[in-house]
Write a structure and sequence with these properties.
Chain lengths: 570, 570
Amino acid sequence: MLEKYIKAARCEVDSDLVLKNASYVDVFTSQIRRGDIAIVDGKIVGIGSYKGIKEIDCTDLTVLPGYIDGHVHIESSQLSPEEFASLIVPRGTTTIIADPHEITNVCGMAGCEYIANASKSVPLDVKIQLPSCVPATPFETSGAILNGKDIEQNIGNDYIFGLGEFMNYPGVIYCDADVIQKLEAAHSHGKVIDGHAPAVYGNDLNAYLCGGITTDHECVTKEEIEEKISKGMYVHIRHGSSTQNLGNAKYITDGNMRRFLLCTDDRHAADLKEKGHLDDALRRLVAEGLNPVTAVICATLNAAECYNLKWKGAIAPFYTADLVIVGDMSQFNAKYVIKDGKIVAKDGAPLFDTSKRYLPENVLNTVHLGELSENCFKLTLKGKKAKAMTIEPGGVVTGCEIVEVESRDGDVVLEGTDLLKLTVVERHKMTGNIGKALFKGYGFKGGAMGITIAHDSHNIILLGDDNKSMVKACAKLKEIGGGMVIVDKNSGEVHSLTLDIAGLMSSRDADGLQRDSRALIERAHSMGVKRDYEAFMSLAFLSLAVIPKLKITDAGLFDVEKFSFTDINA
Amino acid sequence: MLEKYIKAARCEVDSDLVLKNASYVDVFTSQIRRGDIAIVDGKIVGIGSYKGIKEIDCTDLTVLPGYIDGHVHIESSQLSPEEFASLIVPRGTTTIIADPHEITNVCGMAGCEYIANASKSVPLDVKIQLPSCVPATPFETSGAILNGKDIEQNIGNDYIFGLGEFMNYPGVIYCDADVIQKLEAAHSHGKVIDGHAPAVYGNDLNAYLCGGITTDHECVTKEEIEEKISKGMYVHIRHGSSTQNLGNAKYITDGNMRRFLLCTDDRHAADLKEKGHLDDALRRLVAEGLNPVTAVICATLNAAECYNLKWKGAIAPFYTADLVIVGDMSQFNAKYVIKDGKIVAKDGAPLFDTSKRYLPENVLNTVHLGELSENCFKLTLKGKKAKAMTIEPGGVVTGCEIVEVESRDGDVVLEGTDLLKLTVVERHKMTGNIGKALFKGYGFKGGAMGITIAHDSHNIILLGDDNKSMVKACAKLKEIGGGMVIVDKNSGEVHSLTLDIAGLMSSRDADGLQRDSRALIERAHSMGVKRDYEAFMSLAFLSLAVIPKLKITDAGLFDVEKFSFTDINA
């Protein structure tokens, strides 16, 4: 094998593909250089003057190493890995560090395996981080639990790259035995451990790092970045759909530059489609004044070093020929994307087939519900005063308001109020758990709407003002195997969107999914959901019992500030 | 285990050792910071405010990560690994990438194993690179041959870190099958491969790098450095006894800084003792204007990254507590050296015992000679004109001069000339091979002198003007198991210095060895060796058939420029 590379490097034979007369970013010296880039059997064999069996004239183009997304949950796109790849590879991303935290909460290790296997058919290197915190909190029923022993049993699997973001930082700091077991398992296999430690400083940060944790993508301030880098962490600059911190790039200096990476974490299909992936991050970073070569180094070499991806992240002999050819380094429009030496995308379109999708039984039909009746959705209060959840427009932060509400037949009367019932219906273990709350100010009227995406355990978030419609909504979600649903009590119509893969992702193509998704969202607004909110996705975070102030899980109403369940009766 | 670190990090328990109020180099941000550095069970657990069971007041001191020597042949010190460690650890070096090329040429894999095992008792991490080029050339008889198959069989050994400097760059470039087998074996085990490619550029460099080779320590010019770094190599700045390129540090820029390492390659005991090791390199680099923090980063983090030494090369939580505490960053005088959390040296003196040395039989008594007679050393010429080797003062470069010489009884007559017989006596396989040459201008008279260090196969380099003395010298070298010898034909006295380990290194302590070595060298000069030369060590390179112009091996006289053996008769 080496012989073939060496002979081509010396021009004894023509190379498979030569990028003629290319400008390229030399990430090792932070320079832009020029030369022919010769590729053989998936590897760069030389830069100089070369002849290729196939050649691309790059006289007016710039070649960059393929981008590496340092931390991403594919599930947030609601797309299959194949379809996800068809959106991001044409943008120039050739490697991702994927943490299948969401699907693993639903399906357990089968979720991890699915992401790994589904990714095999696409020209994208998908490194699977074993989710470290399944479930994310003990306050809800998840589809799976990965305890220390489970991590021990699975972390050594060949298809597992490392241990995913360790969100349970109190568990590390306070030496929870199960947490320690997980961390030690990862170390015993020499695997990298991603971090997640918002606003952890000083001795607590030292303690967290003594878990052997390497990265953070939650930095907010200059001081936080400086401390974390200084203490050995790599810091991801994040370009998600909701959560972004591109502004952190202004803290990059010559002295700390090698410790910054890029990631997207959670990015919706619409953003991937319309704005892009890491190419969009690069575009914005450069627009905001970051040196384009530095930006590229963060997206390539730095990530390769952080994750010890050998022979990746650079344009040099023997390096993997994962390359992006862009028009310029302000727009980063990818003319060609090359993966393992093959042209896999051109002018933003994939050249690979994703029509045949891997779809194993064990990630389908994941909505497990027993018989539900209207009585199940009755909300019985002790008196007239109760706590109601509110939600800040646009965000995931919720509030708590004391409201007065009438009751009749052991159920609240919502007519004439700005209140809805907000429930979390357990959908994994058929426990019959339904957490119930009052929800104020969302605007929806005349039926029910629900979704099987509910961070992080992904039960059903279901709201409504009519118990019959709520039962119907659940039945529909069970029937379609998960997704989103709206029931109109007046017309009796049921409208839905299927997310057949674990109730989180669709096996369809992005275009069809988006079209139908937009229609359903529009219907929700037409039934009153205020346009301040993302009709369905704002719901998906109402169960995330780590973000203030009041959340709802299948086990009840949760006061995040007190970190305990709370009585709805005020 | 993690629990213990974490609890100490949070000050729930006192740390084992705290470096109080220390200035320290933060290699991740290129800053000097201040804090207490807390150490538990060999790891740094935190930087901040800490209390220790033991504390060192570092108010006026600066703490650096322990230095990493990226490429060194321990054998060049003529010391055992234990004694070598006793000299370099107190200077601040805590990890070395050791290539036991010399001893492996003599003893084969037993040489590698010896270096690995002997290093176990000292507080120095010795990463063993399996020598890739044994023998270095096919033009001499070595004690061992490691062919492709041997490399395949041994590269996967636990104690083998990687593949040593690949000096046979023509073998790579021209795809020698045995060479390819060696490289592929290293790759198949995921091992790093060190390079050695002086003045290899352009497509040849591309081809060399297509062997998957990572480093180079032979750079001379700015252009060479720039091309090599740009093509993915790490470049060692070398501070050997003879070969130095500290001046290359002036080509360090913010953009390429992370690709520079420090190494010593070959450094004599006297230099280690009197000038130092990497501390001396740092001192000189800073004196020549390199930013001290940059210099430290090259000696620490960069090397750790290049060789993927996890949790080494930095001062941060969870990193290995390999530390040097210096007075300042101009002199780099090590007040304390800490290895795996333990104070192992103070004020330049080791605190560890090296008196019990590992000394296996298979590296001793390595001088294998059959019966030798005076006739063996007769040099029979066809006529009066012959080629004579000359040697440039101070260097290893030799010349060729045509001389006129009389013969008598089938032997040259040296009386009244400036000529000596220079021979290489094969000492591994008892082949009886003796390569013979004329040697002009060295100055020695009246007997014989010889040494069992003869790069790279380490036969006996023996010169003299009296055949009887030459026989006697060989007998003495055999008796002592290798080393250096002088025979005075007039007095009949034999003076020697024992290098009992493979004929290359002494099992004694450095002081005694140096004292006796100086005395023997002085004796050589008193017998006429010109002071332009290092009496013995200048001889050791006369067999190195890759350095111009004329060399001598046990197989005969070799014209390096023609790259073939040559007739002594002119």
